[in-house]
From TrEMBL, chain A:
Gene this protein is translated from: xdhA
High-level lineage: Bacteria, Pseudomonadati, Pseudomonadota, Gammaproteobacteria, Cellvibrionales
Domain 2Fe-2S ferredoxin-type positions: 6-95
Record flagged with keyword Iron: yes
Domain FAD-binding PCMH-type: 266-439
The EC number(s) this enzyme carries: 1.17.1.4
Name under which the protein is recorded: Xanthine dehydrogenase small subunit
Residue segments, region Disordered: 183-224
UniProtKB/TrEMBL annotation, chain B:
Cofactor(s) annotated in UniProt: Mo-molybdopterin cytosine dinucleotide
Record's protein name: Xanthine dehydrogenase molybdopterin binding subunit
Gene name for this UniProt entry: xdhB
Enzyme class label: oxidoreductase
Lineage: Bacteria, Pseudomonadati, Pseudomonadota, Gammaproteobacteria, Cellvibrionales
Pfam family, one: Ald_Xan_dh_C
Similarity annotation: Belongs to the xanthine dehydrogenase family.
Amino acid sequence: MFQGGAVIEFLFNGEPVTESNLDPDLTILRYLRTKKGSMGTKEGCASGDCGACTVLVGERLAPAADRGIDYRAVNACIALVGSLHGKHLVTVEGLAGPDDALHPVQRAMVDNHASQCGFCTPGIVMSLAALHESAADNNVDNVLEALSGNLCRCTGYRPIIDAGLKSRTYAGAGNGLGIGTGVDDSLDNTSPNVPGKPPGSDFSNTSSSVPDLAPDSGFEKTPGSVLDTAVSSVLHKTANGAGPDNAFVKAQSHWPEIGDRQAPALVSPLGRCVYPRSERELKHCIEAMPAARFIAGGTDLLLEVTQSYRRLPQLIGLADVAELKTHSVTDNVISLGGALSYTDVCAVLREPLPEVVALLHRFGSRQIRNRGTLGGNLANASPIGDMPPLLLALDAELELSTVTARRRVAVADFYLDYKKTLLQPGEYIRRIIIPRPAAGDFFKCYKVSKRFEDDISAVMLALRWRLQQGVITEVCLAYGGMAAIPKRAAGAEAVLLGQPLEAAAIEQAAAALAGDFSPLSDVRASSQYRLRVAGRLLHKAFLACRAPGVAIDRLDDRQYQSPARSATQSWPS
Amino acid sequence: MRRIKEYQVPLRQRPPKTGLGKPAVHDSAVKHVTGRARYVDDMIMPPGVLHLASGASTCAHGKIKTLDLAAVKASDGVVAVFTRADVPGDIDVGPVYAGDPLFAGDTVEFVGQQLFTVAAHSYEQAQRAVQKAVVEYQPLPAVLTVSTALAQQAFVLPTHTMQSGALGADDYRRAIEAAPQRLCNDVYMKGQEHFYLEGQVCLVCPTEDGGVHVHTSSQHPTEVQKLVAQVLGLPIHRVQAEVRRMGGGFGGKESQAGALACTAAVVCYHTGRAVTFRLPRREDMERTGKRHDFLSRVEVGFSERGEIRGIDICLAGKCGYSPDLSEGIVDRAMFHADNAYYLGPARVVGHRCKTHTVSNTAFRGFGAPQGMVAIEATLDDIARRLGEDPLTIRKRNLYRPGFNTTHYGQKIEQHLLPDIVGQLENSSDYWRRRAAVTEFNRHNPFLKKGLALTPVKFGVSFTATHLNQAGALVHIYTDGSLLVNHAGTEMGQGLYTKVAQVVAAEFGVGVESVQVTATRTDKVANTSPTAASSGTDLNGMAARDAARQIKQGLIEFASTHFAVPADAVRFADNRVIAGTQAMAFAAFVRLAYLNRVALWSSGFYTTPKIHYDRQSAKGRPFFYFANGAAAAEVIVDTFTGEYRVERVDILHDVGRSINPAIDIGQIEGGFVQGMGWLTTEELMWDAQGRVIANSPANYKIPTAADVPPVFNVALYESANAEATIFNSKAVGEPPLMLAISVWSALRDACASVADYRFSPPLDPPATPERVLDALDAARAHVGGEAAATADREVTK
């Protein structure tokens, strides 16, 4: 029988930690607050919606190399301690060095008056630190993206945004080594943390392509270097290569101590949580723990623990299975491993399917996208997921696997009913295979929700049609939020098929939606609104297809400007 | 001592940040960003601490048939279960009026009402145990809406009426009927969840005197102290309440923290152990009060120029099952039903509707936002009727000399708004942008822009006059460091920082010399809630009083010791100057100590001039008014009703600012919070009276991406004509209502499809769904007019 090591090792704020005998369903947040007495990380909602518990999880992408640590912001309330093996957990207590040598993000927050009650602040600091420690620019888009999962009820965010914009003008306590994913989708196939790339391969090659984040480069950017002595001493240390003694720096000397033992597990009298590293190990685990539940990102599953207080005694983590984190893009097909996070998926799809990436910016939050996986979202079969309609419209297929066999099914056949899929016990989603839209295909997706960031769709439409001599020869209208499962509008599709693409046909198709769907009224929208908007989105897509110059999507295009007078500028005396 | 200076640039390169009028950083800023700031749940828990979870009603109104807690008691980790029978003293924890039993009796009156509480070794064990209760109800008819409550005349408190002239006279009616134009409108505005990031929490520890020490996240420690004493049947002096800071309050921790602390105190009383009680977010959203829903009905008569000639306003607040603070909240809605405008003969009626829902409570603005929405909607409607720009109509109705008496008899003495509105009109480039918006809308069938400029006039003072008092305690230690305690609580608004600035200024020392420590009922007694924007006004003055008393003694000593006249003694630049001699402050303090001079004092303050007679509904309830104005521009997607706020300009009156950084923070934060109330934050209830918007997954407060990309905030600095601390003005609540400009701009965008001649209904919150409804209503109006024109042509 498969055992796996009944102990996990990881770095906590730069120091090695070994843990055993913790419950398999213990979240990082409860671990910090009840086992470690580390109270800086706050619980705001325990459901991954407010960001007060944001921590960074650093993953060494190339164990053999001394560069390339990918720090990502995650919600500690819905992430398991068991998932930390071989990783680096950084909390707000780990950012500053001794003697309050504040991290640049912390200093920018203080100087910009960006905390009021302070309860959301540790999470906000961590989200901005993830950006600061990454290779991405801290421009407005990236700052807003970094903050997309952090709620603040006091400040109105303006000073927080300004702190994010200015953090790099405060030189200093960066890790100097981190090559985080950042918040844009600037990953490309030459970056070291490309999902699926075997650790270590091409590493020396790729690290040089990353913009140099040597700490002193930030110093040069400091306008006028109006810094007092305390800060200068930090810079001095950094410039000497030692760096402030914060978690990022300490971690460098401790990484080698973390063992690479296989399939680490947390075991307690309650049960076991195991994180296999390869598909072979995964299969052993499935055989050894037939009653276990799979956990991928856990962003939905762990709500059973934090909201309903249920126990999850047997868990098999999919997030570290190497084979499930690969991808490939050919001229015809995109293949995505089932355990790729949304952040990874965005990086892969940026070139082949930019519409999907644009939509994913409104999907969950930065923290959720860093953790949540495409496979998990599909297996979870929630009626409110945004990806299933997209995959329906693109005629995607899934490769499912058990210990002994693999099979391929169309996404269209995968969903049986509310929260029910074709998946058999012990079967997992191995790959998602997406045919690339052909030349002449028109593909568009729209999400409608009360709030732009981190909200669940009231209505989601993914639409693809093919025109030949102006006639629709193929059409797929896939809707989310309109039925218990993500569903195609068969009646409306029938109206359009074989018709010339004209306003009258769209009108009829929109009318036919009433026969296709009887949506619910719920907390997100009324039934009437859903039906009405479902039809109007068809019109919108029609216009986008026929008159691409007409301004109809400008709502997503906005330019933030720092106010003329911000809180650190001159004040009337 | 704190080392704030380390994080600032040298003084010579930036203006000094610590004196009065300077942007000193929040006293906890470094603690916030490093995670060292401690909130109640972060405290080191005493050994054996018990964790609570409470069972709550799932029925809106009914008799309890069965309450079987056997399985709860047997659940893993449970120490004991407590119900109503275990309360040793008074069962009622109503803050002003009775009506809030700590545990329900035979009858439940809302979904979420506390039935019992479980004490267990861990938070999770307590939560799991609660789920095992078996409760059966005999349902009774439930009143769930304002309209039903109005129809049944179901009120938690009597209706109150304010009227220009004599109560009961019909001047307003005659004025409306005599006016050349009349219109009516109804607006139903939903409430708002506070969504403080730190949920309700307390830690209650037993004391050796048989009392309890309560750490609470509360805006009103004295009320927590008093209620805990009542519930335990103890004299008040056996109970201490302590608040270092809250993770946000916004009114939601004014009265709502009491029941939590009382529940924990009951368990502490019976077990002799420390007890902590923290509500999970979902329960916090289901079981604690929110901003009141309001229905407003306005009938107004006006001139052809849009000047209000007479008005009849009815405001009905959804109070929930008990009075809580609803008397003051509906009163404040009524006091602000004029907002910034001279109403002429007016009647304002306020109902406090009783519904079988959670008892609604204080929320930043305290009813005023709802009163203002009613009148601002009316001014928009008048403008559309007359085909004028709403800003023109607003300006014509502003209070001004000769037109300066409110419907409750207070005279407006300082007319700042005509100037504020005028300045903002220019700085926001209102008229050029108005033309640009109209032009944009003419050429774009799919996206529509809207623009609005709205003013705010907010009355400052508790309308319950006795609450306008505060105490403070100032200590100077022999090294020259100062310690301050006062009656106010810190919830992020920067009160501790401002009061430290006041005290530092009195002694001429840097703000880093002043430490403000936790607000405790055993240091300053009988405190008022930190509410009504009054924190700095009251506590700043009380602290200054304490400081001046100490100073008086020091001056007398210096005068004698250095043989100079008293008026030659000054405190400045960390020194004490006596004639031609000077001494470091710390050295002088030590000298004073050796000469047996008192180095500590209490201080006290009461607000002058204010009074209100409820019988005649006349008086001067407010010491002064804070003013401001905002201009907002929005863009709407007409396919879906989704929208963005593109630009906001604000000019706000804070008097002389004690701390402009903190004041701007309050303005920006208040504005965005108000914007959330009026746009994306939608409370939803099901037909059984359950809140279904019960988590951040389905209740959407603004995010960073909702902040207007152009957001210009400026202070209108003009010394308060009243003698407030540093002649500053209160700033906590007034800016929230600047967000009405966003709502009005959304309505403006919708009205554009009817060529601005129709004012579509748009009940707040203006969610995309409601904006789409408003657009469709405006389109239908155009269609209807076209049809009517066609009909006329046919009949010709």
